[in-house]
Amino acid sequence: MEGLLSFDYPGKIYPVNHHSSTVYGIRAYPDVKSISDFVELAVLTIPEDSVERVVQDCCEKGVKGITIVTAGFGEAIEGGRVREEAIAKLARAHGVRVIGPNVSGTLNLHAGFNASPLQHLLATLLAGVSQGGYAFGDLLASGYGRRMGLGKFIHTGNECDLQVTDFLDYFGKDPQVRGIVMYVETLRDGRRFLEVARRVGRDKPIILHKAGRTLGGIRAARSHTGAMAGSKEVYSAALQQVNVILSPSMELLLPLGHALIERPPMRGKRVAIVTMGGSWGVALSDRLEEEGLIVPELSGPAQASLRSLGMPLRASASNPVDIGAAGAMALSAERLIEIGRVIVASDEVDALILHGLGRAGFARDETPVGRKISLEVEKQVMRGYDGLQQEFRKPVILGSHHSSWESQTISDLQGEGLRVLNRLDEIAQMLFRMYEYWRKMPEGE
């Protein structure tokens, strides 16, 4: 109820509660059958021992869809799976489809619909399908500050009826969805999933995190959703054949999903780095090459072009291009941006990373004027680099060690919608998977 009301859902809401005549000021009904209007969807947040009776009422009422939030079935108790099968059989007999049980809810922010407790939501062009729900709430909360989120989300839970494959198919046909992120513990019909993924993946990136890859994870998955997880080698091989992008972590799902639908294609493995400190350049080079990318030395002519822009003699122009603190202070914002433009415009690199701006600290009334000017210069440079990727159709990644709650610059830029990544492994993993995805896609896609 809170989710629906907080997003000003334009449709009709019918609370059912036999203990109260109103819920949040809206007339409540003692049972589903007491509602005179046609009901499209029922969301059940009721005691586990009442589920079958209420499902029966919904079927007799003519409800078309049921979401069972209630837990305590196949994931938890002996005989729970049998009860789930009975619920699905009853629903199918009446032409009713069921999500769940054991779900956190569903949302379609483009329609103002949030039948979940999830907060910190943004109506983006990404959709999410997950066999685990509340963890996605954490991901959405952490992504909110970076303007990352899901416009549509389905938690499938125990999947007594509808499964992740059904929603992959659905989102594949949805014009409001440009990319799909998934959390999967098991696939109950692997062959059908691969068929659907192959078709959907021709038009939209599918980013999937496969959980339950270890013995401990398999055991946890069984108690979480009642899932029987399979071999990670089998999953990986099969999914890569249909160009599903495998995310090594749940945390990478949103950054990678947004990168694939928002950034230009990455057509090669060569990455250039511009940094304000040598150590970050070395560490980032290691992570990129460990991931499978290349940090090539720039050619003599390219280095000469960079030097002509006034780089300090002690600064490195080879790649990583280490401007250093002296260069960052001496060069204008326009010159710093031009360094990036020269690199991206060359045919020697396929992507560029700017790392090292966005220093810690916030501007206060008592902050020295020089520091405030420095903050504005940082933002100007980072905006300029972000604009290069559309100008030259190559990915340009903004990286900073500091997050939005540590840095005025990062907070302001992310408020404008610029994406700034804080972890070197996240940057490297994201870029490599962008390359892997676009390597398999025809030119012009």
The total domain count is 3
What integer is the average pLDDT?
91
For CATH, the homologous superfamily of the largest domain is named as Succinyl-CoA synthetase domains
Could you tell me the CATH topology label of the largest domain: Rossmann fold
State the CATH class of the largest domain. Alpha Beta
Please bin the fraction of helical residues.
40-55%
Distance between the termini: 41 Å
Q: Strand sequence of the main sheet, in spatial order?
A: 7-6-9-8-10-11-12
CATH architecture of the largest domain: 3-Layer(aba) Sandwich
- Alpha carbon gyration radius: 25 Å
- Tell me how many strands there are: 17
Task: Provide a descriptive summary of the structure in words.
This protein has 445 residues and is α/β, with parallel strands linked by helices. The chain has three domains: 2-99, NAD(P)-binding Rossmann-like Domain (Rossmann fold); 106-262, Rossmann fold, CATH 3.40.50; 271-439, 3-Layer(aba) Sandwich (Rossmann fold). Helices cover 41% and strands 14% of the residues. The chain is built from 16 helices and 17 strands. A seven-stranded mixed β-sheet has the order 7-6-9-8-10-11-12, sandwiched between helices. Helix 5 (164-172) runs parallel beside helix 6 and helix 10 (278-291) packs across helix 16 (424-439). It is elongated and about 80 Å long. Mean pLDDT is 91; it is low at 224-228.
